[in-house]
Amino acid sequence: MIDDWLTTNLKQRFAQKDLNFDVYFKPYAFKKMSLWDASSYTIKRIADKYENLHISLSGGYDSEYVLKVCIENKVPVKPIIVMMNGNEIETNYALDFCKVNNLVPIVVKPTDREIIKLWYDYVFDIQGRGRHSSPILKSLQIAEQNGGWLLTGDCPPTSDDHIDDLERPMHDSFHLAEWDFYVSELFGHPGGLLGYSVECMYGFLNELDTNLSTQRAKSKLYGLKFRKKNYMNFSFAMGTVFNILLENSASYSKECGTYESVKNDLEKYTVN
User: Fold this and answer.
1) What is the pTM of this model?
2) What is d(CA 261, CA 173) in angstroms, rounded to the nearest whole number?
3) Which domains are present in the chain?
4) How far apart (Å, rounded) are the C-alpha atoms in residues 272 and 198?
5) Residue-wise pLDDT tens digits, 160-187
6) CA 2, 189, 53 angle in degrees (round to 5)?
7) Cα 121 to the chain's mean position, in Å?
């Protein structure tokens, strides 16, 4: 992230397992931009710093938007699609997006045993709760094996509260979770585009239509076709293994205020 403007206490979990997740803001002076201009500016900054970029393409709006930004700014990037039991609908969206844009993704389907090993190798030491981060962790492993750097759709500050109610305005809470920062803070990769720069985060908040449901708002904001959100469904056995391996009562997310209040706080750092 530019100038470490957005950080967490994740690394402290190596020593203090029951530490509640927290987020720290240290904005730098920035110019107001539209979300698209901020995204284009930010992806170029990332491409100047990191070679051999890969992206974890889940099939959700956020990672699809990041890939869209890469494509339209002619930033070379290799999509990675991780097929898992229970996420077939979302990954089909990812496959279709690649096909439409003439991209050939890396497609893998890890076994349950491989997923458990990912949990153990990547999040056990911090007692993390990010079971749904499995595709990103697998993508991270592949990117590193290829000598590359990973982009993700992490750091959208939206809550999943009543996300399935498509006619209800989104929950008005700027919300970040520990798994938004696994790739960037723990492993030094660029990670989420939205969290990489103040410009992107401000642009997101400034244009987010909070009168809409989360899915409708993201469709409008990103300029992507509307669809419902579909979540992975782990088997009972996998869920049991996860809960035994990563049992932790510490908070895994942080609510930092309303969208408007965080936007207003960032706006204090704008310059002409």
Assistant:
1) 0.94
2) 9
3) 2-267 (3.40.50)
4) 15
5) 777 778 889 998 999 999 999 999 999 9
6) 100
7) 20
